Amino acid sequence: MKQILLLCAAKPEWASLKKFLDFKKQEGPLPFFHAKTKHISITLVQIGIGIAQAKKSILSLLSIIPPPDEIIHFGVSGSLVPDLESGDVVIPSHVFFHTQQSLECHLALRQKLKEATLEAQLKVIEGDLLTSPFVLKTEQEKKEAHQKTKAFIVDMETHPVLQIFTTKNIPYAALRVIFDTLCVDLSNLDDAGMMDEMGNISTTKTLGTLVKKPKMIFELLPYRKLLSLCQIRLGLVLEKYLQKTSI
Q1: Which one, of 99, 246, 239, lies nearest residue 175 by Cα?
Q2: Which of 49, 125, 193, 218 has the fewest Cβ atoms within 10 Å of its own Cβ atom?
Q3: What ranges do the domains of the chain cover?
């Protein structure tokens, strides 16, 4: 049976997968779930937010699961260019991190994700991804990052994860949906937003932010609507991808 590993940073990113997969929580050091279809075995792992946490999670994960046949690392990202809109699907070809050599995602797996996106009747964009050690909050920060790397989108986890699996020759591809566009300012949020380091919504952090910045309450509803759009589109693409993988 084919072994598929699905990775994401935060719990909200995989919420819509529960509509078509019956996940069973597994015992382990990470938020770790398992599901099966007729032909494939699926492991879903929530690896947390940020470079250090993602790397720590993957190294821990390698000791408790068998090597997968292929890996899809999915989630939301920010746009570094003006022509990407919230909800747009992006499949990164290369991943950058500071001065380190860029890494290439698996070509055949990228193609499968592209076909799945088109089958879901969604537009798909192919472009490079930048992994940043901190949130790029302002339009100016995002523009400068694009000028330096030519990357289309940014996240905070992909490069170290891809680096580990590249050394193990396991096919790996990333799937991203745009959450914040170039002009969206995230200055009111810290690097994990309202979530803890493992990517779970934190009531304490949410209340603390609202106490410090009461006007944030007016931004939460738009954020929630954006997140819902991203969740739906991630779910649509991953459902089609898993159907293709089952053939």
Answers
A1: 239
A2: 218
A3: 75-246
Round to whole Å and give the CA distance between 153 and 131: 9
Q: In whole angstroms, what is the distance from residue 212 CA to residue 101 CA? A: 40
Q: Residue type at 160?
A: P
Distance of CA 7 to the CA centre of its chain: 7
Task: Give how far Cα 98 sits from Cα of 61, 131, 181, Å.
Answer: 25, 8, 22
> Which homologous superfamily is 75-246 in?
Nucleoside phosphorylase domain (3.40.50.1580)
pLDDT for position 193 = 57
**Burial letters 120-159, b for 16+ CB under 10 A, else e:** bebebbebbbbbbeebbbeeebbeebbeebebbbbbbbbb
CB atoms within 10 A of CB 95: 26
Q: What is the pLDDT of residue 223?
A: 77
pLDDT of residue 218 exceeding 50, the answer is no
Continuous H helices in 84-138: 107-119
**Unique residue bearing structure tokens 């821990």:** 60
Render 126-143 in DSSP notation, one character per residue.
Answer: EEEEEE-SS---SHHHHH
pTM for the structure as a whole: 0.91
> Within 13 Å of residue 229, how many CA atoms lie on the same side as its CB?
17
Q: What is the pLDDT of residues 134-151, one digit of tens each?
A: 999 999 999 999 999 999
Structure tokens, 89: 């699907």
Answer yes or no: are the C-beta atoms of 67 and 164 closer than 8 Å.
no
Please list the helix, strand and coil fractions of the chain in percent, rounded to the nearest 5, in that order.
40, 25, 35
CA 186 to CA 156: how far, in whole Å? 15
